[in-house]
Specification:
- By secondary structure, the protein is an alpha+beta fold.
- The chain has one domain: Jelly Rolls (Sandwich).
- Helix content is 32%, strand content 29%.
- It contains three helices and eight strands.
- The strands form two sheets. Strands 1-8-3-6 form a four-stranded antiparallel β-sheet.
- The longest helix has 29 residues.
- The radius of gyration is 15 Å and the shape is globular.
């Protein structure tokens, strides 16, 4: 994979963290690669990790009224996947699979929540970026729905 943790500052999720905070977050991260068709996590599973996409594309699927709805996503590097790992009951709300080979930064959610409890400024800064990412995704889903009509 060869990704360098020192380059995390290029992703919005880590923007505004000081060196000490960045090192603390790096301590709960690991690099991971998934082959095409791999499941990162499944709807209903415990949400143990948050992923930051480094490279590749993913497909999300949701169960709606008993039917599976799939959304193909050409996600941008730095996009956050798996935010339910930060919100009780810490359960995934969709299934995410790799479309092609993907590289991610996997963040241990329990470790990150522990860091949040120890450093309120770290929590505030990163939660702002998580909310911003979720709002962008919600807007994208709305636009996709309008285009489908």
């Amino acid at each position: 994979m060869g990704y360098k943790f020192e380059l995390l500052h290029q992703y919005p999720l880590f923007d505004g963290l000081n060196e000490e905070q960045m090192q603390a977050v790096i301590g709960v991260c690991r690099e991971e690669c998934f082959l095409p068709g791999s499941t990162l996590f499944a709807e209903g599973e415990p949400a143990a990790e948050i992923f930051v996409l480094v490279a590749g594309d993913v497909e999300e699927s949701f169960t709606v009224d008993g039917a599976e709805l799939s959304l193909r996503r050409h996600a941008a590097a730095g996009e956050v996947i798996g935010c339910p790992a930060l919100v009780q009951p810490f359960t995934q709300r969709c299934t995410v699979r790799s479309i092609n080979e993907i590289e991610v930064l996997a963040i241990d959610a329990a470790g990150l929540r522990q860091l949040f409890a120890q450093d309120c400024e770290l929590a505030r800064t990163m939660q702002y970026h998580f909310i911003e990412a979720l709002m962008d995704r919600l807007g994208s889903l709305r636009l996709a729905g309008v285009k489908a009509l």
